[in-house]
Amino acid sequence: MSLSLILTHPGGAHKDELLACSLLAAVNRVPIVRREPTADDLVDPSIAVVDVGGEHAPERNNFDHHQFPADHPPVCALSLVMQHLGVYEDARQFCDWLEPAEWFDTRGPNVTAQWLGVDRSTMNKLNSPIDVTVLRRFAKAKRLDPGEPLWEILSFIGQDLLEYLRDLRSRLDFVAQHAEIWNVNGDEVLFLPRTEPIPEEPSAGIGRYLENIGKSRSIAALIYPDRRGGGYGLSRHNDDPRYDFTRIEKEPDVHFAHARGFIAKTSAAEIVRVKELLALAKV
Q: pTM for this structure?
């Protein structure tokens, strides 16, 4: 059933209900209202009740977590909406910020800082004016309608998050289908061949793919298609010190090498030559 309204609590605003409302707004162009829910709201499946109401009933679009026991695993309203939209597992895997957000909302800043292994003061250093302004303006609003600037910003946030998760899953499947792991100079190197059509961002998803297959620490370098030319990009993986691509900057078929040595671009398309360049960049 499509929604007619997104309802969340009044007063102070937090990231979990703001992002939960953003996801729902991305899927349903309906108003967001900030007030306490009524009994009628809770039984009406066309009204999404977010972070308030005292129940988690996704079949009626009710997404509250405050009734969960104190020892319940950290989940917030955002977690519940993501589960309902079928993107939670990918979000936990690919959005590094999600688990800390769940802890912060359900355990508070002090416990979250301990869990992260940082000082409490570090948590404040992670705030930005973007966070402050969007949350403050959201907290001040009683109703946001499609077409209003803040509603559209929230919808953009939700759209971008959903697109990121869906596109990344597709990208990971692509990398898994085409990637090869080479042993070059005693090092493991990931090679992604050219395909037609070439992806818009050829290197996107490689890091997450390597994490998935348990190779994130063993892979020293990456080779992937250069979308601006017919050759390849060569880069260190996780800034691995075993390669310095300034060592090949004077090669005739290398048209770019970053001064810090972490990446280079070559017009070479033959695999033999690409491997030669990799060998020359070996420290």
A: 0.82
In tens, the pLDDT along 135-193 reads 999 999 999 999 999 999 999 999 999 999 988 888 999 999 999 999 988 899 999 99
Domains and CATH numbers, the chain: 5-167 (no CATH), 179-280 (3.10.310)
Give all strands of the β-sheet with 56-57 in edge-to-edge order: 56-57, 62-63, 47-50, 5-8, 32-34, 143-144
Cβ atoms 221, 243 nearer than 8 A: yes
Burial class for 182, CB neighbours closer than 10 Å (0-12, 13-18, 19+) = middle
Separation between Cα atoms, residue 270 and residue 255, nearest integer Å:
16
Pairing of strands 232-236, 219-225: antiparallel
Can you tell me the distance from the alpha carbon of 230 to that of 269, in angstroms, rounded to the nearest whole number?
7
The values of phi and psi at residue 232, to 5°, are -135, 155
Q: How far apart are CA 280 and CA 274, in angstroms?
A: 10
**Average pLDDT score over the chain:** 94
Instruction: Write the CA distances from 257 to 218, 229, 265, 267, integer angstroms.
Output: 23, 15, 6, 12
